[in-house]
Fold each of these.
Amino acid sequence: MVQVMKLLGEGLVLSSLGGVIALERRCLGQMALAQPLLLCVLAGWFTSQPELGLWLGLSLQLFSLLPRRGLDWSSAGLCAAMTIYLCPSMGVEMAVGSPSSVVVLLVAASSILITSVLDRAIASNHALHLERAAPWSQDDARSQVVRFVHGALWRQWLFGSIALTFYTALALFLAVLLSAAPLAAQWTVEVAAVGAPLVAMAVALGSMVQPRRLAWSLAGAAVGLGALLI
Amino acid sequence: MSRLRTIDMLRMGLRLAALQGAYCEGAMQAVGFAYALSPGIDRVVGDEESRREVLRGFGEPINTHPFLAGVLAGICLRLLEQGRGRAEIGAFLRTAMGAVAAVGDPFFLSALPAVTSAVAAALALWAGPVPALVFLILGFNTVHLLIRTRALSLGYRLGLDALPRVIRWLSPARSRRLTVVAAVALGTVPAGVFLRFSSLRSDSDWTVLLVIMATFALSAVFAKARNFYLHISTAVLVVALFSEVLS
């Protein structure tokens, strides 16, 4: 009972903090700190799982290179980081490429779709508030504008925290569930460990590539391969 | 009327950070922009009634790149100081916001995050997480904070002359050069992934080469059909998951 209460308290504090970081991505510093690689590596260090933090962070950071508006990869990074942090307290040990880590990556990467829907809903909600407050037609337009902006930031934080709690709870639940499942074969873990970052790299390169740039990238690959073989 | 002080610039700079947080359908960034400008308006515009009137003038929809909104804010205040009317400032904003977004989006949405993330990913694999995190934080933030703060003060100092200068900073040629650096750094990632997360390299060099070539082939597929990534990457992860737990 005490452990459950402790876990709930930890989750609440983390989700509030997560709301602040989600707000940072949206408006305060705008990607100054809310980078998946940064968040996951830090979570990995805190829980003595640096390789897992690096693997999840690297994959999500590469996925985040898709130059699309409205895709918020910081919430995906936060979800993964919070799951890395909370898993040991639930007795789950995630290894790089294990079913639990793959499902966390899958949930975190899919969370961007829900976040983009949520962002649109928040923008509509702000429009409703703006229509109701009508700051431009008020005598005290300035204080109305200030009130509207503060309210908007507060809503961003609240919705960010709630969404983050939902993603993390889902990722944790599935990670715990899969940690109990027996492995089919060890080589599948090896394939997933290499496969996930490589697919993310292919997505990143594909989103920015033009034939000439692919040649530059192949030159980079040759250098990397040379270094690996030496 | 009095000129803006550094503290007013600082307040405006901080408030501009909330621009995207108050984004809403219809007015888009208008409320956030008015919120950011209000400390400057208090200094530049004389009486309370005129201030109210000026603030109402910013009720029209505005949508630009948030990192470059500072240059527009600075120019607007300079125009107000010069006694330009609401219509003239409105016309300037309508014309300039698109031009600023057109250079800001490719630079801040594609080029800068791509180069910082790709180089950080390569560093994380080849040199360890510490240099990667240092580069990730400093690389992105030095550039974006420098441009944000400089754009605001330049806009106020030079007025309309600031716009071409800021646009020159973020020229498409510069964005293209940054994506080339990102592409080279991304190229080193597959070998780094084997170095860091796999023991395969000691078993078979040919397997490694084959997997790297397959990754580049997949990149070429994504380059042709950019929406495929959603289905293919999700499918790969789901297949990996099933193959791990289902015998």
Note: Chain B is about 80% helix and 0% strand.
Amino acid sequence: MSLLEYFRPETIEEALELLQQGVPLGGGTAITPRRREVSAVIDLQDLGLDQLESQDGFVLIGAGVKLQSIVDAEGILPEALRIACRQEAGWNLRNMATIAGTLMAGDGRSPLLTVMLAMDTQVLLEPGDKTISLVELFEQRERQAFRQLITTLKFPEPKALGYEQVARAPADRPVVCAAVARLSENDSKQRVRVALGGFGAKPILVDEAGSIVEQSGGVEAAAEAARQAYADAGDAWASGEYRSHAAGVLVRRLLTAGVD
Amino acid sequence: MRIQFTLNGVANEIDVPSDTTLLSALRSQLGLFGVKHGCETGECGACAVLLDGVPVNSCVMLAAQADGHEIETIETLGEHPQLGWRRTSGLHPIQQAFVEVGAIQCGYCTPAMVLAAHALLENEPDPSEAQVRDALSGVLCRCTGYLKPVQAVLRAAAVLRGEAVEPIVSPIPVDLIVEGDEAPEGEGPLPGGSELLTLTRVMPRIQIAPKTETWHAVGHPEPKVDAVKLVQGKPAFTADFEMRGMLIAKLLHSPVAHARIKRIDASKARALPGVAAVLTWKDIPRVVYSTAGQSDPIPGPLDSFSLDNKVRFVGDRVAFVAAESEAIAEKALELIEVEYEPLPAVLDPSEAMTEGAPQIHDEPEYVDFAESDASRNLSASVHIDIGDVEKGFAEADVIVEGTYYVPKVQQAHIEPHVVITYWDEDDRLVVRTSTQVPFHARRMLAPVLGLPAKRIRVIKPRIGGGFGGKQEVLIEDVAAHLTIATGRPVLFEYTRAEEFFASRSRHPMRFHMKTGLKRDGTITANQMDVLSDTGAYGCHALTVTGNTGHKAMAIYVGDGAYRESPNIRFHADIVYTNTPPSGAYRGYGVPQGFWAVERHMETIAQQLNLDPLAFRLKNALRAGELHPFSTAWSEGREPRPEIIKTCGLEECARQGASAIGWASKKENPDWHSVSGAPHLRRGIGVAMLMHGTAIPYLDMGGASIKINDDGSFNLLVGATDLGTGSDTILAQQAAEVLGVPVDDVIVYSSDTDMTPFDKGAYASSTTYISGGAVVGAARKVAEKIRARAARMLSKESGEKLSPEDIVLRDRCAWAPDGRSVSLTEVALNALHHQDQEQIMGVASFVSPVAPPPFATQFAEVTVDVETGQVRVERLVMAVDAGVIINPLTASGQVEGGMTQALGYAVCEEMRYDQTGRPREIDFRAYHIFSAHEMPELQTIFVETFEPSHPFGVKALAEIPTDGVAPAVGNAVMDACGASVTTAPMTPERVWRALKSDQ
């Protein structure tokens, strides 16, 4: 009765050839419950995509790195990223879920996606040795035609990174969360990226909030931009009015606290 | 496909279909039943195994992914310490610690927790509490509240490091009354702040009733009698049973909230290879019944059918399938063609009884009970007036009114509903099921299946949690119909999603409270009007909501003359809607009622500037007084007066207040603020509670005890241990009477062919009712032992001894002169040597009273006043549950109950969209607390001796679920002034309450 085909390629090339037949399988936490909806899975565990390294001011995380490895990377990865990873799931699932799998399957209420969006994470894809932004990945990932393999996530080492959330319970999924990253553009200029999550299919980048902080440092104006960004962010879990308010509070806090 | 891996240290090679999960491969192909199924999405963690040394959830992992890896399951750890002539290494120290500290309740998640702890301690021999909690964060437990599992891991770590650990000893009888506001030495605020939540002391604080001090078994922290089995992951649960040729059942659910089935065609499904049977409403007899597992006659309407030509909620039954595999059964469901004629749906209970509302139950077979009226969507109603309520309001100086709401919530036992049915060699139908009510199940299934009850045998194995959800004959009929149709064994197990959309839940309610008071705080009249939503079927509709008033509205009678003649009104309508049915859930209507009553009392205390504790105690019921509802209502049966014999409420308030530091915090502005965080405010709150102990003149439990050759005893009870430890505390009561260690009492529960009748595990009754039966049976056995021992000892000495001269102690029968015969000698004498007989006793117990346990619940919170987010920091509960039979299992009940109630307070809620589709179908959306986010928990027992029970016990199981939500709500109000009237207190609700105050 099983119609599912299982492949475990040993090289990237082999994996790319199989991509037309099925979907990549990271840890399996998202795909396994849906296994009867797919025709084949390509298990990536033997591809060696589990490296985690710093290089020229950038952090490179292999697509197959487990969430727990990120939590364990104390002193190597920013604290807020590790916290967001810990918020994502309990220990067992963190031992299984890969970072790329989480980026492909996660929704707007994912703390990790929100933080990685703020960090200006770049996604390295094969075939073609392409690099796209996380925003582009969020747009493309739902397309049937998206038959590409994430090999690496890359982000600049932030000068500062902060994450805050509001949830019903400490380990519950947030109804609102925010991440702010301060990134070095060059020696004299700093880039600020503000991301909001807790709603919808994907977290969003509040460009205006970042620009305001970069230009004037105006915390209240940036918070207002966050409020505007979530003005209509209402669903069964929280109203737009509430999310808008809470987004403003969290962004103000993160910017006021200096995000360290 | 062929895969190879190392399993528990041994190379393994198996063939599996490529879509097989590792969970399925381990259980079905390799027979490793320590790995449990709790969900299909990896959130509960019951299916955890170690993969290359770290825990992973095998339900979300393909078996193929394990190829080339090392897998360890619970079966690789310890084993029973005594296996005959073969030497064993015994339990692993982690398993031993779980047994010793009482970390095992239902035991369903225990193997997963033990494995996670094993993985942690392999890498970190000296973990912090935070590390332990993080290690357990991937395994949801609905029973324990995690406190004892954390203590077990810390204890095991110490043992593995070679350190000495404190023995788990019986509580020292101490007077806990303390002066002022200081906790007893060593129990003050803990070092390390909120990071350190777990007291290393395992035993709860306990103020012991004087009578109990000489007992050897009752009152002692005995390990659970099923703990060694459960900690090894033995195949003890329903789905762990294997049968040749067993079919897998699946259910087709309605996608619409209200419709007639115009056409249903199962021919394509039946033609699918591997399908053994497809049943629709056309194929089985149309027998109306109620699914509520209650005594005969069921106090509610008969409004359900196994299958009907109408569906009444999204998730209602449409068809049954039995097939050779789960995949084939699921495919068959897709092939069943159904044409629905949609009907207007009622989703809002406030619209259910309005003019022109669609009638949900229009079937001619509908059988009314009491005031039910299907034509008005009224499933039940209760109208109680005690005293002269209007006169009481007229005499009041102040009248305070308020409206409150509670949501629908789920029992969320980690083991889903699961049943196996088969014909035995005598063509009797065997129903092996995870049920709280095996005897009710047999009685209720008989007419539905067209079988006399005598041809049905219901076996209850271990239960992986129930909490009322399994007080329902919910799915047994599905498997049974399919076994009748096919002649083959059938396994039917709910998925987690089905648990959410096609199971039972706690009734959501809307309350209007109206209270009349004198200026000094004397209550002159108290009124509660309730609208309760039973969903599509009226199972437990009357009795759940009746208990809302019977308990929550009984606690405050007023003071002075009003105490002599209280004025109380309780009116409730319980209406049908096109949503999944409500039903029994631990607390049974009472947590709902106390949300309204205790939030309302706090509001009154604040408005009248009264001390919240003193105001409550001034008006609360006391020992020697009449239970005000006892003459008005008794679960739909004849009410009879009951006098409250014991009430430790005032002492509970004192002890709880002392433990939490009430006096130093409540009126202290400094304590309410958080240094460096102006947006955070601390608050402290309280709720006072009473519950009940069984249903008087109705609930009956039976027990039988027989002696064996070696002087041990078999105790057979129909009572159903669903993880609470009732088998253990029943064994303790038998052991106390028989003068033997608990280990000499072998408990078996329950099997309708083998064990005496028991009404089942509900209404907080087992310790009291079944315990009363056990004591009765043990006394009969003890009497026979004493008589025989007197003859034996008389013969030996020539001195004539009477049975009354003999004392049973230390496995011996003792004469006054110090001579004794062992119980082994007595047993051999009785069974083999002289005047042979089977020494045996059978007894039953039913009580004319339902003595209420009392409790005071305290909560400490921190509120973010900008976002409304509430963090519960600490929960302290002081309980008068009579004599505590086992401090470990009892405190486990309180910790677990408080944790469920914590979810009710802040995060648990089931909601539906405009078409009746559920928002929550998994543990991602429906958040239950996990180990690493828990507040500090503390349990205090204030013992009283209830005279209606031989060992002075009252109920304990449900009262811990009653008070956390209102205590947290009151603490939120104390913190920031926000008066939240709707549970749970989500950030948005608190924020809105804050805004409305401004």
Note: The CA atoms of residues 181 and 663 of chain B lie 6 Å apart.
